[in-house]
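Re: duplicated header lines in exported structure tokens

Our pipeline writes sequence and tokens for each protein into one text file. With two proteins the header for the second block appears twice in some exports. Here is an export where it did not happen, for reference. First protein block:
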Amino acid sequence: MASLKPVDAAALLRVHPHVDLQTLHVAAACEVNVSDTHASASLLVFSPAGVVPEVAAARRAVKRLKQLGFDAALDPSALARRQRFAGDDSERLAAVYRVADAAPAVALATRGGYGLSRLLDVIDWARIGRSIERGTAWVGYSDVTALHLAALAHGAGGPVSPGEGVTAGLWAGPMACGDFGLADDPLGGDDVTQDCFVEAMQGELEAVGFRSEAGFDGLEVQGRLWGGNLSVVQALLGTPHFPRVKGGILFLEDVNEHPYRTERALLQLLQAGVLANQKAVVLGSFTAYKPSPLDRGYNFKQMLAYIRSQLKVPVLTGLPFGHVPTKVCLPVGRRARLIVEDRDALILW
């Protein structure tokens, strides 16, 4: 189970003296004092994929984001509906362009679901790239993986090493309705998730720490950080929208996928040569699947053991990211380093 934990900075510093942990901001148990936040950053909540099932959730999210210090607003078509989509394809494409042209500090998706794959062939990627040049951070996960990875594939994801404090680019992170607009939570969502998001969007988040399994002590690799939802990553394979990342750090998560389906997706990436070309694979949460009477002892652990037996690249678990309440923010496409001391893992950029 993915979980955030305090990073043993002193131990990491002893083993990795080149890491300046005195100034490093690590997401382990993020705490942000809203009264200390920077001047209000513009934030647009938009719907590029699935329909928003509860209008009130989007409105609660905007209210909560304002409380967190953002100058937040809903895109005009954020609540549009067309079958299972947030408007027809032309409406959702127009929303993406509207956000790109406005170039807010943060472009936050309402939710995932499905719909971005329909737009990938027609999106003007230079337009997305220009918004990032003007300072926009495109944030989301799940189906938003399609937008992130396609932007990388088309050279519109921003610089690999943008410099300290730069927030513009692509961020795998929370979404409005599920992480800021919940009705049954006084904060609208998980406080750690929200605090880490604020820290990331202020340019202060420089690393995420988590507890992994034993067996990776001393691992240290660096490469481009990329990935997202496994089903979406798999669906992009073989298309012009799949980024050709070699020597990267690939992170993956998924929901409602039985371990055999996860295995099949991972095997496709392995057989296509994607996994072997990475420095490491880091798994987040794989949740909400139902066991089958046919499993007969086959489970996620057994699936993972098989994948590891087929692959020389280290496959870590425990990343607090995915379809779970507590999730960190990860800068997609940036150069990063993965360091493991005992079972303490740190991804820093």
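Second protein block, exported in the same file:
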Amino acid sequence: MILLTGATGTTGRRVARRLTKWGYRFSALVRNPDKTSGLKSSKVELIKGDLRKPDSLRRAMEGIEHAFLLPPNTENQFRLERNFIDAARESGVKYLVKYSAIGADPDSPSRLLKWHGEAEKYLEQSGIRYSIVRPNIFMQNFTNLYAGRIREEKEFRLPFGDARCGWVDARDIGRLIARMLTENGHKSNILTVTGPESLSCDDIAEILSQAVGKKIEYVDVKPREFKNEMVESGMPEIMAEAVTELYKLVSDGLCDVVTDTFYEITEKQPRTFDEFVDDNLRLFLKKKPKSKK
């Protein structure tokens, strides 16, 4: 049996969707079963639990062989991940896939990468067979975070300068993780997963311009200005600071990486940014006002 965490988020729901499509039964750890309408399926067992409560994790892991750990980005992230890893070890889980981030390192100046790096080291020392998945930056940031400004103001704002990134589609990460959870032959490893090409924000602006038929501008903003914009949009200041730290490393070239990992695991080609934009084009187009009759 497989246990998922984070099954309602950007990546987790795509893992769940892929497992369901392939016909696998699995369990999903959820804090509130009443708020999981996207997981309603005869193949999904919803288990009430909380990463803050080790006893609930041990109960959830009864009979589990493969588990997926997708932690929330919070100040106590390492403690939450440690709780899950300890419960998995005590419950006899045979294989654990941890969601991490490109550049994870316990000594990183980015607190997000530091938190992931600390948990990676703990997992490596746990004795559980593991895979650590480090995705590059998600293409879905453009639909989840920037689409409104692209529609209304024909621009997107990031503090990346002319840095390039191997942007990856979250749907591909979902497929890869689902594949790993349903196979038994993976040895302990760390996998950096990217899209097929490394693109600058100017490259992306051109792709968007071609798709929507209007000029889309990339505005290179200062890190402090970008942080203030995130806070004004409702993000807690501590998380805005953490994202700004990470994006400083991105601007220094952290994400200018392209690997063949996705193809090696899935035997499929990763989606290009052009394909991502085509699949989500309606989100970047301004709705035409309805004509009055």
